[in-house]
Amino acid sequence: MTKKVRVRFAPSPTGELHVGNIRTALFDWAYARHTGGSFIFRIEDTDTERVTPEYIQAAINTLKWLGLDWDEGPEVGGPHGPYLQSQRLDKYAEWAAKFLAQGDAYHCYCSSEELEAVREAQRKANVAPGYNGHCRNLTDDEIVAFKADGRKPVLRMRMPEGSTTFTDLIRGDVTFEHQFVPDFVLARNDGSPLYTLAVAVDDVLMDVTHVLRGEDLLSSTPRQLRVYDAMGVKPEDYPLFAHLPFVMGQDNAKLSKRNGETSIAWYRDAGYLPEAICNYLALLGWSPGEDRENVTMKELTELFTVERVHSSPARFDMKKLEAINGDKIRALTLESFFEWSMPFLTKSGVATESATDIALVKRALPIIQERITTLSEIPALLNFLFVKDFAIEAESAAKITDEASKQVLTISSERLAGLATSGTWDHASIEAVLRTALIEELGLKPRIAFSALRIAVTGSHISPPLFESMELLGAEKSLARIRGAI
Ligand code: GLU
Q: Is the pTM above the cut of 0.90?
């Protein structure tokens, strides 16, 4: 009988989660959902100096915001908890003691100066750096002497001679020669566990069946397999590994703060929708096939298989993310577009939660939904409707100081005043009146005729469609602004 799939996302939140973390979380989640398995969220917070409660909470919030719901983990609990490693220290200590008793691990008394001297010698001799096995076979007398010296030992795992081969679901067979995998530290001299001990113990205790994670962790795999072995797990029961390709920046160097925005919080604040972020990140190393680029979360879970993950690095492409975000914004219902927009409008001070403002926002949103790529563009585009002290941007004002502009504005103001008193102030009537006056009668080019009006009415040469903008603004304000500009 095949085991039910259990995949885990196990970040060490030493900062805001970044693009690489979330790509991993997304693939873990999609794989669990695709297979009907469980998605486990485990916080690896044994590095107490760098992981803070704030970063842990931020990680939890980010996953929630993205819609990556977990079946076991912080806040929801589960049968294998606790899911914070800092609350599981007794388990690591118990296994560490067992490894020592079994002879799989040993106490190492080397000081950091001695270890540094070994590394220095290795560098000089041009051999691979790593522990030289000094304390592997200490005699009782040597141990007594170290203790008398007041030295406190770390716990090291004994790597046998030979090599480790495992089948990576993305890369195929991967072999590590143990001469390059020296005996490694499991616990510090205060007994606290290191990553390799905690991660492997937890993957076993939490019955994890699949480890999908970044390629940067590939080299730690032979050490983890060694820990499974010491725990008495049979090779056929080891979790299966799939190492996801690196995410590179535009310049083909590994994506980092230096060559691209990496923090997911930044994308949220810049007005990217969670669905767009997930859709885009899904394409970093995976593809739905048939040249498709747009997938919903539901389609992602239906289509996601590890076989479709490539091993070659993926390149982060901001333009593609923007395009996908624009698509997702256009696909929103008006009601949810409104829900997403309001925080951007209120935070920037453009609109308030008052009934009048909300009504105007709801009328205005349809005219910009087709045009934007991020939600953060909304305040600047709609500001002209709400602003109390209207003024034309200096750069735009300079464009309408000529005689032709003055003529356009003067004639428009006369004709629109007529429309305001006798007709209906809607975008179709406004357009008809202005086309007759400016294009047909004066023979102007539309671009020239309407750009002066756009600047006069919205204060900027970049705005939502002109006639719709004037309809929303109302006759009184539109006319006052045109007259003000003249
Ligand atoms: N906690 C590790 C990290 O954030 C990842 C653990 C794993 O996926 O094996 O780098």
A: yes
